[in-house]
Amino acid sequence: MVWAHQSARVPPAATQTDEPFDAALPPLDATVAPPSDQPVSVAVPPTQLEQPPVTEGEVMRPLVPLSQVNANPPPATPKEAADETPRIRYSTEIEGLKGVKGGVEAGDLEHQFRALSALIKDGKKAANAAQVSARADEDVQLAERIMRAAGYYDGVASASVDLVPNQPGEVHVTLIATPGTRYDLGKIEVSHAPAEPSREAREALGLKSGDPIDAAVIEGSEANVALRLPEQGYPFAQVGQRDIALDDATHSGDYTLALEAGPKSRFSGIQTIGNQVFDVEHLSVFPRYRKGQVYDSRMVEDLRQALVGTSLFSTVTVEPVRTRRVNDDGTEDVDLLVRQIRGPWRSLAASGGYATGEGAKVQGNYTWRNLFPPEGALILSAVAGTQEQGGSATFRRSNAGKRDRTFQAAIAIDRTKYAAYQANTANLSVSLSRQSTPIWQKRWTWSLGGELVGTNEQGAATSVGAIRPRRTFLIGALPLQLGYDRSNDLLNPTKGLRLNGKVSPETSLQGGKVKPYARTLLQLSAYYPVLHSVVLAGRAQVGSILGSSLDNLAPSRRLYSGGGGSVRGYGYQELGPKDLGNKPIGGRDQVEFAFEARYRFGNFGIVPFFDAGRVGESSIPSLSGLRYGAGIGGRYYTNFGPLRIDVATPINRQRGESRIALYIGIGQAF
Fold first, then answer.
1. 44 located within any domain
2. Backbone phi, then psi, for 651, in 5-degree steps?
3. Average pLDDT in the chain
4. Residue 329 belongs to what domain range?
5. What's the number of domains the chain is made of?
6. Which residue from 146, 538, 559, 571 lies 20 to 30 Å from 172 (Cα-Cα)?
7. Cβ burial 617-626 (10 Å sphere, 16+ → b, else e)
8. What is the secondary structure of 85-147 as a DSSP string?
């Protein structure tokens, strides 16, 4: 029996004096680094060259005086240097590794060897025969290490370099490997740890007696132990030295892993150091664990990601700190140390797009994310477009007393000029919400708030060519929203579903008349991958306004369909009832459907789609009179979501409606 161990680890005491065996056995290495590109000097027999005859004139010529001899000859020109460095060609043949099993996912040993071979990596040319010999020697070592890493501890390799007959300047390299019998795992033990962490470690290892001794598998199993124990209450666990006792008679090896588990721990307090953005009081808002809960490293990483998500740090780390406080059950309290380094708090952002019916639009905003600590942001926004202009100021308090809860107050002024209406609007709103972000996509979302709107709007024409009347409305609303999201991505979902419901009780004051009503909306979307690169997506939406006639509703509060996020093929708000001037007037009921086949290849995608929808003047949604649109879109996928271009046409087009509609934006249509 002999011992195999990592070179940096100490073998068992019984084998420390058996130095010849230890020196002969290879370490359990997965691979070796790619060999050097520089040629290695190797002794090669001198080539016998025929010397030219010496003439009598040369013999009788007087010698050059020693004083005129230059000890440093002039440097060779590039052409001379090239001439002095002959290039030879070589071919390579590998025997004995093809079909020999390697790691679980690494293919056979020949595949692994070819990926790292010096002879193959450096092409089929070399400066001289010595360089070919050096590469061959390095590949012999590589082949033996690859065999040992896969469990073939008796494996040997050799190489020969031979001249190719009748082919001047060409040699043939043959590498022959003999793997021998593969060694399997015998007994598997975890030492130096109490019973509970030892059991957790053995489960995390996942190694079984009879499995091949594969370096990559064993190292991966040990990494699982290093991850598993901190998840089960051992924040200071350390995976120690590995020893494998090889028995060349049975071709097996007994595996022992040293483990220092440390104390089982429970969450306690929070400490912080560094250039502080948050004090301990606000840091205590972020953890999802409870004080006294058994330590779990996943909760620590969740806390760190939540802090990163505030965008207020250039660097932030979270790590456990021992307190030495022991509880009655033998566990130890552990604090979390948050190291803060403040990052930039202010940013500028801009976006733009184009859609038929909405025209071109450019938006920009300035954000000071921590003007009112903690996490009190000021956001100034402006929009400039062919059919919309406006600005707003928003105060937003993130993680307001509780993680993921946002309080927001905003004031906005907006001027819009659409085919359906023209409006000059001032809006004051407040809300409390829990919403998804690109970093944190949440399963359940909600919001509740209040809104006060003053708007002067131009509505439908009463006759052909007549001036559309302008009215002023004062509107109060209490919007509520509840969402459920089981999709796998916020901007580019490929599977799952989303359900979203909105209810907004509102009261309108116009011309001395008070008119209460309620706006309701229900949305459902689903995503199903039929192939690796094809996703089928569908969306349905139903809306209704209850309690008021259409004429008593401000045009901007009515329901509309048509556009990039609605029924493509039609202009923005183009579907539904029309006035005498053939302009859309909106409605009180709405139904929409959309279907897409999203095909992706690399960073690009093609999306054929079919949409349907209608808007009516009743408060009861109906499927009669559906309008249809179809088209095709292009996608360019980025790390922040797909860039979208859709071109569509109406199927049952009516007079005055667009023939072709174009939509450009970020993210999928739904």
1. no
2. -85, -50
3. 86
4. 265-342
5. 4
6. 146
7. eebebeeeee
8. S--EEEEEEEES-TT-B-SSSS-BHHHHHHHH-HHHHTTTEESSHHHHHHHHHHHHHHHHHHH
